[in-house]
Specification:
about 325 residues, alpha+beta, T-fold, nine-stranded mixed beta sheet, three-stranded antiparallel beta sheet, 19 strands, binds adenosine-5'-diphosphate, binds magnesium ion
Length: about 325
C-alpha cells in the first residue's frame, strides 16, 4: 500500500519547464514532494550550465575552446559523463561518439538554419570526430581534446545523467513514487501511487506526440528512446534528423527510426539508445542482450518491432499497424 496522509490524500507535486533543450516534467508523490521538485530543478539547471554546448561559459564549452591547447578542470558530474561517454564510444566501436559536435554543427539541425552540407565539408569535419582523443585525468578531474577544432557534444548522454541525479535527490528525500520525464528520457521511480507498475507509452514514430505503439510496464527503471522524429528538418520530402552516423558524417540511416532502452540507470539508457540507433537492429540487439539488466526495443521504417527477450512480459503492443520481428536474435 502506498502511504497516505492525515486527510487520506496522497501529496503530489508536479513541475513542467524547459531545460536541456527539451520539455521536462516531474510528477512526485510524498510528503516532501514540493521541496524536492525544487531541488531537482536546481540540479537540472546546474547540469545544463556545466554541460551545454550552447552556453559559452559551460565546462563543455571551455573544454572545446581549449581543444589542442590544455586540460580543463571540471566538476564531478561533467567528468563522470565524459568518462561514461568514452566507455560507450569504445563499447559501440565509435557508433556513439561524444566528439560529434563538428558534424552536428555543420548540419545545424538544432538551429534556425539547418542545411545539407557538401561532401567536402562533411569529410573535413568528420575527420575531427574521434572519442579516443578525449584525454581524461582521473586524479585531477581534467578533460582535454587532443586536437584543435575538435569539440564535445554530450547531448546523447547528459539527459540520462540528469534523470539519474534527479532520481537520487528524490530517493534521498524518501520519495517512493515519481515520474521523471526529460523529453522522452524517462525514469519511473518505484510504482504508481496505487502501487501498480508505471505504464510508459512508446511513441509511434509515424504519429503525433502522445500516440503510442504500445506500453511497457516498469517499476524503478529508466526508459529512454532515441527517435528520428525528435529533431529534424525536411528537404525535398526527405527527413534529415539529429542522430549522426560517425562513420559517414550523415544522419544515421539503417532502417531504424526509434530505439528504446530499458535499464536501471538512465545514463546507460541514454547512451545505449543512441548507440543502438546508429548500430542498427542486429548489432544493437546483440549489444543490449550482452549487458545484464538492459533491454531494447527497435522500430523500423517498415513498421516492424524488434525486442530483446527480457521485456516480453512487460511489453504490450496496442497498435495494429506494427508487426513483431523474431523474438530471438542471436
Ligand atoms: P535526444 O537528444 O533526442 O534524446 P539522443 O540521446 O539520441 O537523442 O542524442 C542525440 C544528440 O546527441 C544529438 O542532438 C547530438 O547533439 C548528439 N549526437 C548525434 N549523433 C551522435 C552520436 N552518433 N554519438 C553521440 N552523440 C550524438
Ligand atoms: Mg541518447
Amino acid at each position: 500500500m502506498f502511504f497516505k496522509f492525515p486527510n487520506n490524500k496522497i501529496v503530489q507535486s508536479t513541475r513542467e519547464f524547459y531545460a536541456l533543450g527539451t520539455v521536462i516534467q516531474f510528477k512526485a508523490y510524498g510528503k516532501k514532494a514540493d521541496k524536492v521538485c525544487d531541488m531537482a530543478m536546481d540540479k537540472i539547471n546546474e547540469i545544463e550550465n556545466n554541460m551545454s554546448v550552447f552556453k559559452g561559459n559551460s565546462e563543455v564549452s571551455t573544454i572545446n575552446k581549449n581543444a589542442g591547447i590544455g586540460q580543463v578542470k571540471v566538476s564531478r558530474g561533467t567528468y563522470y559523463v565524459n568518462k561514461k561517454a568514452v566507455e560507450y564510444g569504445r563499447m559501440s566501436k565509435g557508433a556513439f561518439d561524444p566528439t560529434i559536435r563538428p558534424v552536428v554543427g555543420l548540419w545545424g539541425i538544432q538551429t534556425e538554419n539547418p542545411r545539407i552540407p557538401n561532401t567536402d565539408e562533411i569529410n573535413r569535419n568528420n575527420r575531427l570526430v574521434n572519442y579516443k582523443d578525449i584525454i581524461l585525468d582521473e586524479q585531477n578531474h581534467t578533460v582535454m581534446l587532443r586536437n584543435k577544432d575538435q569539440a564535445l557534444d554530450l547531448g546523447a548522454i547528459a539527459k540520462g545523467f540528469a534523470a539519474d541525479e534527479v532520481k537520487n535527490i528524490f530517493c534521498k528525500h524518501k520519495i517512493k513514487s515519481a515520474l521523471i520525464d526529460l523529453g522522452g528520457n524517462i525514469f519511473a521511480l518505484g510504482n504508481k501511487p496505487n502501487d501498480t507498475p508505471w505504464k510508459i507509452g512508446i511513441q509511434d514514430p509515424f504519429k503525433k506526440r502522445g500516440e503510442f505503439i504500445g506500453v511497457i510496464c516498469v517499476t524503478g527503471r529508466s526508459i529512454v528512446t532515441s527517435g528520428n522524429y525528435e529533431r529534424y528538418f525536411m528537404n525535398n520530402d526527405k527527413r534529415f534528423h539529429h542522430i549522426m552516423d560517425p562513420f559517414t558524417g550523415n544522419p544515421s540511416e539503417n532502417g531504424v527510426i526509434s530505439a528504446t532502452i530499458i535499464s536501471d540507470y538512465s545514463i546507460d539508457g541514454d547512451a545505449l539508445s543512441t548507440c543502438a540507433f546508429v548500430m542498427g537492429i542486429e548489432a544493437g540487439l546483440k549489444l543490449a542482450e550482452s549487458i545484464e539488466g538492459v533491454d531494447a526495443l527497435f522500430i523500423t521504417e517498415n513498421k516492424k518491432i524488434y525486442t530483446t527477450c527480457g521485456i516480453d512480459n512487460e511489453l504490450e503492443v496496442t497498435s495494429k499497424e506494427f508487426l513483431r520481428g523474431p523474438i530471438k536474435w542471436k
